[in-house]
Amino acid sequence: MSIEPDLLKILACPVDKGPLELVDGWLVNPRLGHRYEIRDEVPILLRPDHVDPAVARAQR
Predict the structure, then answer these.
(1) Strand 26-29 with 21-23, pairing
(2) Less crowded by CB within 10 Å, the N or C end of the chain?
(3) Tens digits of per-residue pLDDT, 1-34?
(4) Structural domains of the chain in order of their starting residue, each with its CATH number
(5) SUPFAM superfamilies of this UniProt entry (predicted)?
(6) pLDDT at site 9
(7) SS in 3 state form for the chain?
(8) For residues 42 and 50, is the Cβ–Cβ distance under 8 A?
(9) In the prediction, which pLDDT does 3 show?
């Protein structure tokens, strides 16, 4: 999955508000070790504490 470079420049982690990186089709915050799904070219930027625990385990 890809994301437009201009969009990637303005996206921020919902936890620490820092920049995200695109790694293997996921948006990744390397500072915290969080990663966020991109579904149908839409970034799903839910805080890890707002995600179903089963989904959170699958995203690790």
Answers:
(1) antiparallel
(2) C
(3) 678 999 999 999 999 999 999 999 999 999 999 9
(4) 5-59 (2.20.25)
(5) Trm112p-like
(6) 96
(7) CCCCHHHHHHCECCCCCCECEEECCEEEECCCCEEECEECCEECCCCHHHCCHHHHHHHC
(8) no
(9) 87
